[in-house]
Design a protein that fits this description.
This protein is an alpha+beta fold. It is about 60% helix and about 10% strand. It has 3 domains: about 450 residues, Multidrug efflux transporter AcrB transmembrane domain (Multidrug efflux transporter AcrB transmembrane fold, Up-down Bundle); about 150 residues, no CATH class; about 140 residues, no CATH class. The protein has a 4-stranded antiparallel sheet with strand order 2-5-1-6, with helices on both faces. The two termini are about 35 Å apart. InterPro entries: MMPL_dom, Mycobact_MmpL, SSD.
């Protein structure tokens, strides 16, 4: 019987024999039935994208977003721009297409018709000063019907429309600054107003509009969250191909490592079983698969292969030699396949369980971030890794017990020839565990850690580039966004601050309106703000109109009656006020949604409201003032204003960035705490635990520097990678230290223990790191930029954590365990 098995506690033997190997056919039948069932549930998974899934709904800004979503719309806007490839919009063909595009956008069920704005919608009007006061009407006269057969537009018609566009002050907003295009704005209905808002369906309908109305003379450009989801979902379909490539590469490398196609296939089967169970569990938990979480199955597969390699490696040693041997002279006759599987199971149950438990706890810490999409990722990854405990530590050894080498004697002969072939390299690495080289290694590692810390400070929280970073710069969406930004004075990037005040503040409170006006001017002068729209600005234009259009009268009237005249013409569908004028939005359109731009604007808002006593945290001032107005009646008078951040897509990003920034260090702290606790429980050695954890810390710091150098911001879909990197990376160190500890406990010196650990598990660790890095490295060719970025980051984590475990771990142990290891073999 294998000597190592006798050294294991009897608990492992009883567990292996009684629970796992006592009823192998029954266990395999249970696995087979569950796999078929999970495959069925997995086939029912659907892409489940949601706007609110990606935002921290409990954040202060998002409470404002939810309070006013129905009144002013949210951040879920779609912009469709029709552009003339040559010339201007002054053609009948252009206006005909614009009319049909407007109708097509309104025909989408998920679009809120009341919030659609276009030259052809009745809520886009102009006002002008005439001899008798004011005159106004639709920008497109009712008599202008280019879409009706027989109508022929004249130059006078185009001149009239141009004049109306200028009077309506929509040049740069609904009409391009250079008169080369026009825009259709649309808001999607709130997600809680419909049973299910299908973003992919909306994206497909928008793309159909492009296909129908784009021709050699006109181009259509579409931006908005729904279109982003659609483009990402389209790109995510290529993930299936990448998954197949990853499986194929892994199988070929695993076959080269094990010298056996059947055993390589077993490792793949066990990992794929975990993936199938994970996807089936998602369906049972009521989740869909979000495009942003489409990479999670890759991680489950990678972790499953990582631990499967260790199990296969241990089984081969037990099967061919009866134990894991250091040189050929120790080779026994070998165990049969069943006994070898039991021995491998007993040997790897503790380190495998500790490593996988570390992964699970690491993923669970991501739940700290109160954003649904991140929590779904945490649950998915945690369930998947927990299932790997079953598939790799139970299913795989049972499968190994049934599958033997085709020619065991030949396999043993070849394995004996390979023993000692890599000793030269292992001896070179072993020198790093000697005092001098170990100290030099530690100094280099600390220097790299300092470098990573310093340069990691440049990593931004949020987007670091214009456009949608999840897509490549050449993606159609990013090209559309750039086109719209070039020709219009605003785009989809906006932040709206809601000014809460007393009821009818726009007619009864000049001080409140004056403060809101000053605030709008303050925002307009912030770098990165293109344009600001607010009710006081519009009211000043109207007031000037009532006074012959004189620029001297472009001011807010102090008299309540005159103020009422200046504001009473604005309806709620203008988006400038609510029904009783107790909430007045101030919308700033930004040049981009880079983190630095959003941070600068948010800081300016906070500075203004604190300097002007316009901030009442934790309250809805509008409701309180309304209640007081009812109680006090005509005697009520209040000029308080509460400037609440924020709606608009930039407001959502500001809340998300703040939440991610606040969660970054607590989350990583808990990840490391979980790893430390599990290592302490497993090995009962604070110094050994420190040696395992320190390489992970250095790699995390270097990863931050890498993200900064690649302009990858820390955001919803990159923050979890840091926790995943730590959880997966600790596996290497745990497997190597577990083997070293076996030999240290036998009285061997550290260098000799390290050498033997390398001989037994070094090849498996190197193979795992390189294979996983090669698998995710293929992602750099993905259509999705965020998948390519994740491929680079995960490859970095896999390789650097592997190097840290092989090189830095023994160096740290040399200086942390001085005087504690046996003297033999160290001199």
């Amino acid at each position: 019987m294998n000597q190592s098995m006798h050294a294991n506690p009897s608990l492992f033997r009883r567990l292996a024999e009684g629970l796992v190997f006592g009823s192998r056919p029954l266990v395999l039948l249970v696995f087979a039935v569950l796999t078929v069932a999970m495959l069925y549930f997995a086939s029912q998974l659907r892409v489940d994208a949601g706007f609110k899934k990606q935002i921290p709904l409990q954040h202060e800004y998002m409470q404002t977003f939810l309070d006013y979503e129905r009144e002013f719309g949210g951040a879920n806007r779609v912009l469709v721009a029709l552009m003339a490839r040559e010339g201007s919009i002054d053609s009948q063909a252009f206006y005909t297409k614009l009319y049909h595009v407007t109708q097509a956008v309104m025909a989408i069920d998920e679009v809120d018709d009341a919030r659609v704005r276009s030259l052809f919608t009745p809520n886009v009007r102009f006002v002008e000063v005439v001899e008798d006061g004011f005159a106004g009407g639709n920008v497109i006269p009712d008599t202008f019907t280019p879409y009706v057969d027989g109508f022929v537009a004249s130059e006078e018609d185009f001149a009239t429309i141009r004049a109306n566009i200028v009077k309506a002050n929509i040049l740069g907003r609904l009409v391009a600054k250079d008169w080369t295009g026009a825009m259709v704005w649309a808001e999607l209905v709130p997600e809680d107003a419909v049973e299910k808002l299908d973003y992919q369906k909306v994206a497909a309908q928008l793309e159909a509009i492009r296909q129908q109305y784009e021709d050699e003379h006109h181009s259509v450009h579409i931006i908005g969250f729904a279109k982003v989801v659609g483009d990402i979902a389209d790109g995510a379909r290529s993930v299936v191909a990448f998954f197949g490539v990853t499986v194929a590469i892994t199988f070929l490398l695993l076959m080269a490592y094990t010298r056996s196609a059947r055993h390589a296939a077993l490792g793949i089967v066990a990992a794929l079983t975990a993936v199938i169970w994970t996807l089936g569990s998602l369906r049972l938990l009521g989740f869909g698969i979000d495009p942003m979480n489409i990479l999670t199955p890759f991680l489950i597969f990678a972790i499953g292969v990582s631990h499967g390699v260790q199990m296969i490696n241990a089984w081969i040693s037990e099967r061919l030699f009866g134990s894991e041997i250091i040189d050929a002279s120790q080779a026994g006759t070998g165990l049969d396949a069943y006994a070898a599987a039991r021995a491998a199971f007993a040997k790897l149950l503790l380190p495998g369980s500790v490593a996988l438990a570390s992964d699970v706890v690491g993923f669970l810490t991501i739940l700290l971030i109160p954003i649904q999409i991140i929590r779904e990722l945490a649950i998915t990854a945690s369930v998947g890794v927990a299932l790997i405990i079953l598939t790799n530590l139970i299913l795989l050894p049972i499968l190994l017990s049934y599958i033997d080498f085709a020619k065991p004697a030949l396999a043993r002969e070849k394995a004996l020839k390979r023993i000692g072939r890599r000793d030269h390299y292992w001896r070179l690495l072993t020198r790093l565990s000697e005092p001098g080289p170990a100290l030099a290694t530690i100094v280099v590692a600390v220097s790299l850690g300092v470098f990573g810390f310093v340069h990691g400070q440049k990593m931004q929280v949020g987007d670091s580039e214009a456009g949608v970073p999840e897509l490549r710069p050449e993606a159609r969406f990013n090209q559309d966004a750039a086109k719209i930004a070039d020709h219009f004075a605003l785009g989809i990037d906006s932040i709206t601050v809601i000014a809460e005040a007393r009821p009818d503040a726009c007619t009864l409170s000049y001080p409140a309106m004056e403060l809101i006006d000053r605030f709008a001017w303050h925002l307009y002068n912030v770098e990165g703000v293109q344009q600001v729209i607010s009710l006081p600005q519009a009211a000043k234009i109207v007031n000037a109109g009532w006074n012959d259009g004189s620029i001297r009268w472009r001011v807010l009237p102090r008299d309540p009656d005159t103020l009422r005249v200046a504001t009473q013409g604005f309806e709620t569908d203008s988006g400038l006020l609510n029904a009783d004028c107790s909430a007045i939005p101030v919308t700033a359109f930004l040049t981009d949604h880079k983190a630095e731009t959003i941070t600068r604007v948010v800081r300016a808002v906070k500075e203004f409201r604190e300097a002007n006593q316009a901030w009442y945290p934790g309250t809805n001032l509008r409701v309180e003032l309304a209640e007081r107005a009812l109680e006090e009646g005509d005697a009520f008078e209040s000029h308080q204003v509460n400037l609440r951040l924020a709606t608009g897509n930039a407001g959502v990003m500001a809340a998300t960035n703040e939440r991610v920034s606040a969660a970054q260090y607590p989350m990583m702290g808990l990840v490391y705490l979980a790893v430390i606790v599990l290592c302490l429980l497993a090995y009962r050695s604070p110094k050994a635990t420190l040696a395992i954890v320190l390489p992970l810390v250095i790699v995390s710091l270097l990863a931050n520097a890498l993200m900064a150098s690649m302009n990858i911001g820390l955001k919803v879909n990159t923050l979890p990678v840091a926790a995943l990197g730590v959880g997966i990376g600790v596996d290497y160190a745990i497997y190597i230290y577990s083997r070293m500890k076996e030999f240290l406990d036998q009285g061997l010196g550290l260098s000799e223990a390290y050498f033997r650990a390398l001989k037994l598990t070094g090849t498996a660790v190197l193979f795992t790191g390189l294979t996983l890095a090669a698998g995710v490295g293929t992602w750099i060719f993905s259509e999705l930029k965020f998948q390519a970025d994740m491929g680079v980051l995960l490859s970095f984590f896999f390789l650097m954590n592997m190097i840290g475990a092989i090189v830095l771990l023994p160096a740290l142990l040399r200086w942390l365990l001085r005087g504690q290891e046996a003297v033999a073999g160290n001199r």
